[in-house]
Design goal:
The chain has 280 residues and is of the alpha+beta class. The protein has helices at residues 64-72, 106-111, 140-149, 158-164, 205-218, 239-247, 270-276; strands at 2-3, 8-9, 12-19, 28-35, 38-45, 51-58, 83-89, 93-97, 120-127, 132-139, 154-157, 174-179, 183-190, 193-201, 227-232, 250-253. Helix 5 packs parallel to helix 6. The model is unreliable at 1-9 (pLDDT under 50).
């Protein structure tokens, strides 16, 4: 296992590049995650358990030049893959009851979140496990690039992915919180009921606490009974974790189940691991 030193390519800033020196003769799966200011990929075996390469970067914005940098900087993306899985991690999303869903309302509902239909595509995904539809927007430039480079890829929204990976229900409520460098997603359930999904920007631990505590208040969730499930870029020795631990009794990390060892906490890459395991 080798950790390739970070490098900076114009606006594209590499945070992690993990490369396993083992090789595989079996089918490979590529999992790609793209958000407003971040991008990552993992190359795994078909089961999603064996990790061969992982890359994680941030950018000021995605445009044609940065998408080209993303592709050309990592020749492994040009390999042949058994399957390509893509997760769109953009914040313009509304979860709506399947029973009340109307396709013609999708754009109107998203416009209430500040969505501009002129430069994005509206997509609707059913989430049968929760009897919901996820209506979300993907920038046209991003989706056209994905369709061009990975024409047979399977895609889904990050919320849809996380909702399918909620593997326990708590009578006291559960919060799945996934951190990136400057923002985080929060999904909230209580018992068998799905309550809330949202993406928030943050710059300090106080910002995160504000949104978490306000959500608890809004949905009458007890901080003593709630289970807080963390993943992404939060370290157990960080000031952010210490602040969370003062306000929430039960905190667990959702960890990636890679058959590989490296210097980074396994929960940093849980979302990519979840995506890899969607391959069939």
């Amino acid at each position: 296992m080798s950790i390739i030193a970070p490098l900076e390519i114009k606006k594209l800033k590499q945070l992690f590049h993990i490369k396993n020196n083992n090789t595989s003769n079996g089918p490979l799966v590529l999992s790609v995650r793209l958000g407003e200011k971040h991008g990552s990929f993992a190359i795994t075996d078909k089961s999603g358990n064996e990790l061969y390469q992982l890359f994680y970067c941030t950018t000021d914005e995605w445009n044609e030049k940065e998408l080209t940098n993303f592709l050309t900087s990592y020749p492994a993306l040009n390999n042949s893959f058994y399957q390509v899985q893509v997760a769109y991690d953009f914040p313009h999303s509304i979860l709506h009851s399947s029973k009340e869903y109307k396709q013609e309302d999708a754009g109107l509902l998203l416009s209430s979140l500040g969505f501009n239909s002129g430069n994005a595509n509206v997509i609707t995904e059913p989430i049968a496990e929760w009897q919901l539809n996820n209506m979300y927007a993907v920038p046209k430039e991003i989706q056209e690039w994905v369709n061009s480079i990975f024409p047979v890829s399977k895609f889904r929204h990050q919320y849809s992915l996380e909702m399918k990976n909620i593997n326990s229900v708590s009578a006291g409520g559960s919060m799945l919180v996934d951190f990136r460098k400057d923002d985080f997603t929060m999904l909230v359930t209580k018992g068998s009921e799905f309550l809330f999904a949202q993406t928030f920007d943050y710059s300090t631990p106080a910002d995160v606490l504000y949104y978490l505590l306000k959500t608890c208040q809004q949905f009458s969730l007890s901080q003593q009974e709630l289970q807080l499930q963390l993943s992404g870029l939060v370290d157990k020795q960080s000031s952010l974790y210490n602040e969370l631990h003062q306000y929430f009794i039960t905190i667990v990390f959702r960890e990636a189940n890679w058959n590989v060892s490296n210097e980074y906490p396994a929960h940093f890459f849980t979302s990519l691991n979840d995506l890899a395991k969607c391959a069939s």
